[in-house]
Design a protein that fits this description.
CATH superfamily of the largest domain: NAD(P)-binding Rossmann-like Domain
CATH topology of the largest domain: Rossmann fold
Structural class: alpha/beta
Number of helices: 10
Distance between the termini: 63 Å
Strand content: 5-15%
Largest sheet: 7 strands, parallel
CATH class of the largest domain: Alpha Beta
Order of helices and strands: EEEHEEHEHEHEHHHEHHHEE
Strand order of the largest sheet: 5-4-3-6-7-8-9
Helix content: 40-55%
Low-confidence stretches: 257-264, 268-314
Oligomer: single chain
Radius of gyration: 21 Å
Number of domains: 2
Length: 314
């Protein structure tokens, strides 16, 4: 039964929710939404912060600190019902495999995958102590984990793909023990940092990039927080082991365009290809399909893939 107080939904009343990586804009937005639905929120970050009613400090890449902080949260609250793994990082040094150092690779995987692994490892035992055993975990992944990228950021994309697969595995493993696990495949969410970047590139470039997004805009912090609250609640009780998309349909246009339209010999989709050519700045040249796949734009990122030398002969 979902309780309401006035116009507020209290579907998380009595639940203890942990946000790992709580000091960020996204972490604070999610904390506010969960608390508005009745949850007790514990925020964890490596820097001083005020996220949640319990604000904890820990290095989420250090296993002993992670183990200790979850034990402290459980001691204070008596239970843990939900975990949102929001910690992560990107790096300008993360490029293609040929020019990314192993130090950068290790740093990116530590920030984006190791943190989620350690938090799950030391949170799940406390969820199993609930009577009956129960809980929900959401791991922050990315729509980039589901597609090929023509340019860099390969370590980040691989780390997020690892998060998605780990979530599927753990969700399957814990399904009969009352604990659901899902990855959240995030598209571009309008944080102040992203808004600043797009303000610098100008209206024309901004419109061109939005062409590749069926909804034609960024996601909002409120939409992201609402999705996390849904996955934390019993309303999503039949959802587990998934990579749950919140990307404005961006992955779908990539998949459909690549598999159906990008083949110039497929006449069935020529009308759609023509429409996409009218809307966007990427095309597939007529001719040999294998050669021309290397000259297509990647719809999701709007980067021309001319550096890829696909074979021109059998």
């Amino acid at each position: 039964m979902v309780k309401k107080l006035g116009s507020k939904c209290l579907r998380l009343e009595g639940k203890v929710c942990v946000i790992a990586g709580g000091a960020s804009v996204i972490g604070r937005a999610v904390a506010d939404r969960l608390m508005s639905e009745g949850a007790v929120v514990a925020g964890i970050d490596q820097e001083e912060h005020t996220t949640g009613s319990l604000s904890m400090i820990a290095d989420l890449g250090n296993e002993s600190e992670v183990e200790n902080v979850f034990a402290r949260i459980h001691k204070k609250t008596g239970r843990i019902d939900f975990l949102y793994n929001n910690a992560g990082a990107v790096s300008s040094e993360d490029k293609s495999v040929m020019n990314t150092t192993t130090e950068t690779l290790d740093r990116i995987f530590a920030a984006n995958f190791r943190t989620a692994w350690l938090c799950c490892k030391h949170c799940v035992p406390f969820m199993l102590r609930n009577d009956p055993p129960s809980g929900s975990i959401v791991n922050s992944s990315s729509f980039l984990a589901n597609m090929g990228s023509a340019t860099g950021q390969m370590a980040y994309n691989a780390a997020k793909a690892a998060v998605s697969q780990f979530s599927r595995d753990l969700g399957t493993n814990l399904a009969r023990q009352g604990i659901r696990v899902n990855a959240l495949s995030l598209g571009p969410i309008e944080t102040p940092q992203l808004a600043e970047v797009f303000a610098r590139i100008g209206d024309q470039e901004r419109k061109r990039r939005f062409t590749h997004m069926p909804l034609g805009r960024f996601g909002t912090l409120e939409e992201l927080a609402g999705t996390v609250a849904f996955l934390a609640s019993e309303d999503s009780g039949f959802i587990t082991a998934s990579a749950f998309p919140i990307d404005g349909g961006r992955f779908e246009i990539q998949a459909n365009y690549t598999s159906r339209v990008c083949n110039p010999t497929n006449k069935a989709y020529q009308p759609l290809a023509s429409a996409l050519r009218d809307r966007a700045s990427y095309v597939c040249r007529p001719g040999d399909a294998r050669r021309d796949m290397g000259r297509c734009f990647t719809p999701a990122v709007g980067i021309q893939r001319q550096q890829i030398n696909a074979p021109t002969s059998a």
